[in-house]
Structures are given as C-alpha cells and as structure tokens.
Amino acid sequence: MIRVLLADDQILVRGAFALLVNSADDMEVVGEAGTGDEAVALTRDLRPDVVLMDIRMPSTDGIEATRRIFADEGAISSKVLILTTFETDVNVLRSLRAGACGFLPKDTRPDALLEAIRTVAAGAALLSPGATRAVITRALSRPDATAPERLASLTAREREVLQLVAAGRSNQEIADELFVSPLTAKTHVGRILAKMGARDRVHLVIAAYEAGLL
Question: In what order do the strands lie in the sheet with 50-53?
C-alpha cells in the first residue's frame, strides 16, 4: 500500500482528496495536515510514502515545509508531490529546489492524480506540461553560473545520454538508441546525476538547461 499524507489548509479540499486516494486499492491516507508545520511534524512521525502538499498554507508554506522535510533525516524517505492552483515558474522552481519530486495543478484529472502518486512513490519525478514549460523558461532566463562547470565534467557519451534524458527517454530507450545494455544506460544516468548535483531526472533537465546544453 502507498501511504499518503494530505497537507492543505482547506478541510473540504482535504476531504475530497481523501475520498479519492482511499478509493484506490493500492493506497491509503494515513494523516492530514492543515499547516506546513503540521505537515513536517506528521511526515516525521508517520513517514508516509507520498505527501500531497499545497503551497499556500498558514505560517509555514508548502515550499518551506518541503525544504524542511527534505533536510530532515527522519523524513527524507517521504516523497513530496506539490498540488496547487498557483502554477508559476517561481513556485515550480522553488518547489523543485526545496526537494519536491513532482508538481501538478489542482485541476488535474482524478485518475491522473492517482497515477502521479504512484509515479512519485516509485521514485520517479513528475511535472505537468505547464510546470515543465515554466522550468525551461525560468532556467533560460536565469541560468546557474555554476552549471557550465558541472557540465564540463561530463564525458562526450554522458552529454549524449543527458540530451536523451532531457528528451524524455527511459533507460531502456536510451540503451536501445545507443546500442548498450539497460544497466550501462542506468550507470551513465547515475554518474550524470552525481556530477550535475541533481536529485532526479527533473532536476537533471533543469541543470542541463541552466548549463546551456539544451
């Protein structure tokens, strides 16, 4: 079972999400938080697989709560999926840099939201099309000065793999295109993540754009 924590300051919204999540055979709601502080505390205590996190909440907002969760060794195993009505480039990048694994608007279809929870729980990153555009736009307008230096540490093959990752290719698809084994493709991706200082594929794509590779 995928254990889900709901963090939203509106009781009716949490209730609707709870009904949806509990309707799935493979997941359950294990707790609800109405503030960012409660979300951090409950994540530490309950250690859910996924935290559905709103951004605008009293006192501590969802982005700061995400940062605290990611910095807490007792809660870092939990994945944060941001779900908000404010899909701006600033919010998207702040959320990702705080440690969020996904970012979706609240008008996401119910079936798509459940699938997003499964995706994030499995360790993959996920962005809505709007969030992806926001990330690219923001990265191009405000590049990271250290990104080119990190990019220079990549081998020619690793740059090739990075471009395929940015194009949305899976490890199997990368292996097929480069005529290598899936394990070799996975190894390349792992090394690139380490060299670029990225947590997952979404952060890797951000770093690639900031470095000017894409």
Answer: 27-33, 2-7, 50-53, 79-84, 102-105, 126-127
